[in-house]
From TrEMBL:
Transmembrane segments: none annotated. PANTHER family: ALCOHOL DEHYDROGENASE YQHD (PTHR43633). It comes from Clostridium putrefaciens. This is Fe-dependent oxidoreductase, alcohol dehydrogenase. GO terms for cellular component: cytosol.
């Protein structure tokens, strides 16, 4: 296990009716709020009204940035930063999924920066200060509610890039699983795949002596497998929704990575798909993951797949090691298909013509992954296999 400093600063209010803390929590940071949300799901569910009511009762003045896109765009960040600058906003409250939260984080940084907001995405070192961020999560997926990263899309340049700063971590996040009852099946499935992918990115890793982190990762994977299906069958299953919601936060808040040297593989490959084709992040991950697994399976990585197959999928440990590994990959693919997620790139409208361009762009920041480092040729092979 490597040395690490433990710090997860986001305060979590988890459970039914935790929205009741909103007024008091916001007032710790001021009385002028920018409310950021997506395409209207929070209006349909009634959550918007509840938030506004709490603001009014607590004399909190607020401005709004509606319409944040899935795969949030730099144009929305620019709009939000302008509102913050003009009105001296004290805190940004995102109500929604990862897109609204990510957009808020970069708005918070851009509001404290004199130049062009895209600079802060290309080069996170330029982020010096961030307005306080808070969130009310409505979709279990990205973990943005408890991490310090954000992913923003620039459609003019076909780029989707991650950025981050420690102060981008929300000051507090309200996680009421009932707010996810209205999530459509397709997003429940994509969210589950996303949570699992965050775990895979750090579980398939070469750091030695991380028994505890690996067992925690397996517990989280089993939670997703068990409750992902249940939430699909019954969207109002509180037990399923609460387990998925907490898994979403724990998968990526640092808990699984402390003590490991990590460098992600499938996410950088997927970000190109959503940058070029604006597809759902979790869907892209679910399509690519089994092909990535097959590609990186070799004599050096075999034991990790055996661990995965035996501990997560309960495959007989007495079988031949390669048989266990292949079965574990097959189970992974079957699970994503059982959630109704497409399994090929063509099904989501991606054709061969852009594969090379995307493969080249995914490595502009260098090779990806450290379980088995991949260059643009490897990535092209994986894209082709997933076609
Ligand atoms: O926009 P609205 O109307 O709210 O509808 C959204 C959107 O259409 C809908 N939705 C959300 N909650 C709902 C709901 N519909 C009904 N009831 C609810 N309770 O779901 C759709 C997708 O929402 P979005 O916020 O885009 O989804 P998600 O949470 O999956 O976020 C995806 C974005 O996060 C980035 C992804 O790349 C993508 O841009 N990621 C952020 C990460 C981070 N900050 O750490 C890590 C991830 O790996 C990921 O890259
Ligand atoms: Zn993700």
């Amino acid at each position: 296990m490597k040395n690490f400093n433990y710090s997860i600063p986001t305060k979590i209010f988890f459970g039914r009716d935790q929205i009741n803390v909103l007024g008091d929590q916001i007032k710790k940071y001021g009385s002028k709020v920018l409310l950021v949300y997506g395409g209207g799901s929070i209006k349909k569910s009634g959550l918007y009204e509840k938030v506004v009511d709490i603001f009014n009762k607590n004399n909190i003045i607020f401005w709004e940035l509606p319409g944040v896109e899935p795969n949030p765009r730099i144009t929305s960040v620019r709009k939000g930063a302008e509102i913050c600058k003009q009105n001296h906003i004290d805190i940004i409250l995102a109500v929604g999924g990862g897109s609204s939260i990510d957009c808020s984080k970069v708005i918070g940084a851009a509001a404290c920066y004199d130049g062009e907001p895209w600079d802060l995405v290309i080069d996170p070192r330029k982020i010096k200060k961030v307005l306080p961020i808070a969130s009310i999560l409505t979709l279990a997926a990205t973990g943005s509610e408890m991490d310090a990263g954000a992913v923003i899309t620039n459609l003019e340049t076909n780029q989707k890039l991650g950025t981050g700063h420690k102060d981008m971590a929300p000051k507090f996040s309200i996680l009421d699983p009932t707010n996810t009852f209205t999530v459509p099946k397709s997003q429940t499935a994509a969210g589950t795949a996303d949570i699992m992918s965050h775990i895979f990115e750090v579980y398939f890793n070469n750091t030695k002596g991380v028994y505890l982190q690996d067992r925690m990762a397996e517990a989280l994977l089993k939670t997703c497998i068990n409750y992902g299906s249940k939430a699909m069958e019954n969207p109002e299953d509180y037990e399923a929704r609460s387990n998925l919601m907490w898994a979403s936060s724990l998968a990526i808040n640092g808990l699984l990575t402390y003590g490991k040297e990590t460098k992600w593989s499938v996410h950088p490959m997927e970000h190109e798909l959503s940058a070029f084709y604006d597809i759902t992040h979790g869907v892209g991950l679910a399509i690519l993951t089994p092909h990535w697994m097959k590609y990186v399976l070799n004599d050096h990585t075999l034991n990790k797949f055996v661990e995965y197959g035996v501990n997560v999928w309960n495959i007989d440990e007495n079988l031949d090691k390669y048989e266990i590994a292949h079965k574990s990959i097959e189970e992974t693919k079957k699970f994503f298909i059982s959630l109704g997620i497409p399994s090929t790139l063509r099904e989501v409208g991606i054709e061969e013509e852009s594969l090379e361009k995307m493969a080249n762009q995914s490595t502009v920041r260098g090779s990806i992954g450290n379980f088995l480092p991949l260059d643009s040729k490897d990535i092209l092979n994986i894209y082709k296999a997933a076609l």
